[in-house]
Amino acid sequence: MPTLEKRPEDVHAPEPKPVVTPDKWVKKPTADIPWEALAPVPMQHVPLPLQPVPSADKLPSSLFSQPLGMYSDTGFRPMPLMNPVERDKKIDSYQKTLDGATYVAGNLKGQQKVEYIEDQLEALSRFSKDVAPDDATGKAAETVPTPLIDNARPLIEKLERMTPDATTPAGGTNPEGAHVGTGTDWNTKLGVPQYRTQSDNLIPPEASCNMTSLAMALERLGYGRENAMDAIDGELKQRYLDEQKAKLAKTKGDPSTLPKTADDVTLPAGYFEGQVKGYLKAVDAAAEKPYQGVRGKDTDEKAWDNIAGQYRDNAQFEDTLDFLRYLTKAGSRTDLDTVTPKLLEKLEPDAEKRPTYRTITPGKNMDWTKARGQMDEVLDDGGAAMLSFHHKGGNNFNASHIVSVQQMTQDGIVADDPYGRIRSNYNVAQVGDAYGEKGQAGRSPARKNQVDAGLDRSKPSTMDTDWKSYGAQHLKPEEALGSSSQVADSVMKNAWRSLRFLEPAKKKAVVDAAKPAVVPGQSQTAQPQ
User: Fold this and answer.
1) Which of 27, 199, 268, 461 has the least CB density, counted as fewest CB within 10 Å?
2) Are residues 309 and 409 in the same domain?
3) Domain boundary, last residue among 190, 217, 248
4) What's the predicted TM-score (pTM) here?
């Protein structure tokens, strides 16, 4: 192999000079670039390659004899688009988002914690709108999908249990909203009902599953304590105006001195408290046994005065609903089919926005499987369901109990049971209460919601504070055994008594006034006169 001859310039080439670097690098000032500009470019802004394009001289002339059609006609094939994520998968994935937010919130404090939780709840509201059913309207459009209720509650509870201090200003005036930040009642805003136990109610705790479950159902529809108090004030103003008109009629006074409408009435001092006291006395008067009276015990006038003086700022939603029922003479609290439509008229004066109410019962054309189907549709559309079932066992079909249905599962339901946690192997045909052990006629402390043991209920004139909204927002574990309670279809299949549905108002079809109505059988061609 011949050797390569070296060139003169190769022999005498100078040695490369070493690169001299400065002792210290001079750091240039960082440009003020927003973080968004540093993020990766979104894929939708990146042009997709269409593979190598053949030159024109290699294309058959026949392609140019007619306009270009679809890419497939010319051999161009763009990258296929990703299939849209199914709604159910989006909702399932968001559960992890909420659980992660709850974990983060648990490690924050003060105003930072408030702002973080409110940001997460606002994001949940936007997400709910994005995945809302096509026909969702009004409040139903931002109602949280039922599978997310149990994941959203801890965030709301953390916010509601925060106490204002020097670094965390107070916010809001609604006793059942948050007491910091914006003071929003997130339960009604998002349709995530606050879990409520009947055991701490003013009205008979052992006999108020109806109003307690109704309160949770109404919160699902976006109605809460403030709506009830507005309706109560309206009723009291009308009552006071009617009383003044009756007095003037007796004395033949001048009616023009009275307000023209109830909206113009200012209630005199003590009037509200007096009406509350009259209501409490009526509850006790109707009680045949102590457990059917106020607070489920013997109470006296001193206790009624104590409650009446604190009622406006402290009463829970379910108790205000019962007071409204009393004022409007809507019927017995045990008759929800009569009471609920009348209360809805007071809570939602606008008939077009008012939720609808209906009941289904077991029968020849309605079994548990069909009832499940209807319940699933109602809940998915932002509605609420209350389930009544026979809880005594031993084929006792007289007594019944009402729970609020939170969501559906593959083989049952998740209930927010105001009384406690139903036994998983309960069978209506066998002896044994749903809230006791198998074969046990009574209730078990391990299944029935307990009353705060630190409260003194022994004296008629002593009134504890457990009935207030603050206490309801700070339930202890033994007071909330019925929260998010799993109930199998096998338990309810033969035990259910009725299902009551509250559904959002439907969007009404808009009639185009410019087009004449179509009359069947009549030609729509204009005829000469």
Assistant:
1) 27
2) no
3) 190
4) 0.80
